[in-house]
Amino acid sequence: MRRGGFKREVRAPELPLLTRLTLLPMAERLFVALLVVLSVSVPVLVLYGESVDPQATSPWGWAARHPLCLWCLALLVAVGALLYLEPPRAASPRAWLQQLRKRAHLTRSIYAANLTRLYPEEQHESNEESP
Fold it and tell me: Cβ(46)–Cβ(70) under 8 Å?
């Protein structure tokens, strides 16, 4: 007996992280790499300040004593990279957010198309008859 209206989605097998990243466009891959580096750099600098330079004699040691400043700097770099990746077409922040949303949808569709190209036989299938 068939259940009406229900579809079962067959997912592609679990892919390694690097394979999934190669399905993204190059600009988005670089942005993801920048975000990873920024998120790791602040704790590394704080650990450096605590272990190597506890007196904060170097600029890195001073920066490690002020993690809020480091997080603000990381945020500024990330927003600057986002502005470089997708420059606003209008002066309105709301218009830029809509533009970023459209870019995200475009990136998702490119990712899905690349995934379908990689696994063409594993697309959406309708539910088979139950026993």
Answer: yes
50's enclosing H/E stretch is helix 26-51
* Count of other CB atoms within 10 angstroms of residue 33: 11
| Confidence (pTM) | 0.70
Binning the chain into helix, strand and coil, the percentages to the nearest 5 are 65, 5, 35
Query: Measured in Å, how far apart are the chain's first and last C-alpha atoms?
Result: 7
pLDDT band at residue 106 under the 50/70/90 scheme = very high
Residue 61, burial from CB neighbour count under 10 angstroms (0-12, 13-18, 19+) = middle
Q: Give CA angle at 21 (107, 98), nearest 5°.
A: 25
